[in-house]
Amino acid sequence: MSASPSIVDTPEEAAAQERPPLLVRQPLEAVLDAAGIGSGPIEADPIGDGHSNITYLIRRGDAEVVLRRPPRPPLPPSAHDVIREARLLRALESQPVRTPRVLLIHEDETTIGGPFYVMERVAGDVISTTLPERFVPESTHAPLIEELVDALVELHAVDWRGAGLEWFGKGDDRYLERQLRRFGGLWELNATRAVPEVEETAAWLAERRPVQRESTLVHGDYRLGNVMFGPGSTAGGRDIRLTAIFDWELSTIGDPLADVGYLTATYNEGGGASGPMAELTPVTAGPGFPSRAQILERYAAGSGRELAEVGWYQALAIWKSAVFLEGSYKRHRAGSTDDPFFAALEQGVPLLARHALELAQGSAA
Hints:
Blueprint: E1 7-8, H1 11-16, E2 23-24, H2 25-35, E3 43-47, E4 54-60, E5 63-69, H3 82-92, E6 102-106, E7 116-120, H4 141-156, H5 175-190, H6 196-207, E8 216-218, E9 227-229, E10 242-245, E11 252-254, H7 257-265, H8 292-303, H9 310-333, H10 340-343, H11 345-364
Parallel strand pairs: 1-2
Antiparallel strand pairs: 3-4, 4-5, 5-7, 6-7, 8-11, 9-10
Helix pairs in contact: 4-8, 5-6, 5-9, 6-9, 6-11, 7-9, 9-11
C-alpha cells in the first residue's frame, strides 16, 4: 500500500486517498470555531507514542490544545472508545484526580474520519525512554515514583458513585471474571497465529482467580509513560508534582489491584526479569529509582490494601497486553497502519505471552 498523508486540508483530499487520513483541517477548523477555540489555520503535530488512540497537539492562533481520536479502522469491538474516555474525564473534573480538562466532545465520525475530543494542553514532562535534564540528578528519582504511586492511591480513592460514574462499569465483584472472559474472547478475535502461552496463562489465571474485595475506578494502563510531571525546578527533588494522568482508554470500575499489578509488572527494575513491557520506560532501571517491592510497600501504606496476591495481577496485566497488542498486529497485517512498532509485534506478542506465563509460574512457586 502506498503512503498516504495523515493530515490533509479538505474532505475531497481525504476521499481521494487510498488510506483515510487521521486529521482533516478545514472541517476541524469549523468545529473549533463553533467552540470558540482559537482562530485561523490549524497546525497539528502528533504527540505521544501513537500506538493506540491517536493524539495531536493543535495550534491555532494563540490557542494550544490536544485532540484525541481512535486509530484507523478496522478496530476490535468496544476498543478505542475516545468518547467514553472523554466523558470519564469530564466526570472526574469534580474529583481530586489529576486529569486534564475536556473542552470539546465531537461524536460525528464524518468530520475528520472518526470521533474525537479536545482537551487543554497541560505543560510539563512525560518520561519514557530518556530523563529530562531536570530529572537527571539521582535525588529526583525516588520522588518521581513516589508521586506516581501516590497519584494512583488518590485515583483508587475516588467516590465514583458520587461522580456519577455508575454507567462506567458494573461495580460488582465479578470484574476479574469479566476480564478473563473478555480478553479470552478478544484473543479468539485478534489471533493471527497460534501462541500456546496465551492459552496456558489464561487457564492458570482462571484456576487461581482471587476473590475481588472491592470496586474502584481503575485506569487500566497506569505506568510512568502515561503521566505528566509539572514544570519547574527540582531543588532537592522535593517539589516534583505529577500534574496529569493520560490514556484512560482501558479504564473502568473494577479491582484496584489490577492497576497495581500492571504498574509493577511493567516497571523496569533492571535485569532481564523485568520483561518486554519494561522497555517502554528504561530510565527506571537507573540508580536511585525504587524497586518493585518499594512501590508495593508505598501503595499498601497509602491505600491500606493487602497485596499478598499481587503476583496473579501481574500475570493478568502482561497476558492482557499480549492479547490487546495482537489486535494491533492484526491491524498492521491488514495494512491499516505502517507504524514499525506494530510490525515488531510479530515477535513482541509471543515474548509478552511467554513473560506472562513466567510470571504466573513464578507466582505459583
